[in-house]
Amino acid sequence: MAESIIKIEGLTKTFGSGATAVTALDNINLDIRQGEIFGIIGLSGAGKSTLVRCMNLLERPTEGKVIVDGMDLTALHEKELRQARQAIGMIFQSFNLLMQRTALDNICFPLELAGVSRKAARERARELLRIVGLEDKEKAYPAQLSGGQQQRVAIARALATNPKVLLCDEATSALDPTTTLSILELLKRLNRDLGVTVVVITHEMKVVEQICHRVVVIDNSRIQEIGTIEEVFRRPKTEAARKLVFPQTEHTVKFSGKGKFLRLAFNGNTTDRPIIAEMVLKCGAPVNIAFADTKVIDGRMVGHMILQMPEEPEIVRKMLSYLDSQNIIYVEER
Fold this sequence. Notes:
Elements: E1 4-15, E2 22-33, E3 37-41, H1 48-55, E4 63-68, E5 71-72, H2 78-84, E6 88-92, H3 103-113, H4 118-131, H5 147-158, E7 165-169, H6 177-194, E8 197-202, H7 205-211, E9 214-219, E10 222-228, H8 229-234, H9 239-245, E11 261-271, H10 275-283, E12 288-297, E13 300-308, H11 313-325, E14 329-332
Parallel strand pairs: 3-8, 3-9, 6-7, 7-8
Antiparallel strand pairs: 1-2, 1-4, 4-5, 9-10, 11-13, 11-14, 12-13
């Protein structure tokens, strides 16, 4: 098992004081391993963006420690903290590029602040533009670039000081699905080729499914669940994880009758093959579709479905095994 690159111990963040105080994070304990792609997911207002800003002390915790690469950031003076932040790159949803600077000069900016010579900074910036696939855009201004190209420049800028950690705060939320996929592929390649640890903050389950090794679910300012993608999304144990996995609808019918009810989620990773029909044929028993809210987008199924399963335990076992083989997310309805 890889060593920890980020350790968060007893972290609490409170805004305001007295009767108007709001606790954004409550006793967070987290261990992120060197070289992994780690996801932090939760609904809006869960506290995930506050957590990532505490990781580089853009927000100073009210209590607790943030240890990055063995160094307790909360114990550093401002000058020491500025130097330590060079090991932590960050990219944002809104790109945050300087509009009066070219792509090349945007990437040079953190190197200028670090005291790197102009010649060395420009050499490094050109190398990074090549890595993110924009070597022909060095003279382009942000307004001349697409959203995906702007985010690639922002990623290159975040990598300028050779960070060990890259924090991505809703980095793909402003992008279309195709561009999102290309940015996620870039992050995976950077993780593999450069060994940089990537922390992805998002409210989109599909993002962490496509890129992350492990994921933590945050809700009501606290950690609700943590584990591999398989553990958290294929077998959600908490209500917070279930909210993310299964779409919320006004469907409130209470099911009755024999046989368990199973809720299946289709999150765009399944093509429009007749999964349920194939399961019925393979297992030799019918199921009752009690509810369905699915649609096909770009050849992929999204939505969810509730099945009433057969009464025979052995047939149910075979059906669950088939769903597992097809990477279908499911959970038993209560």
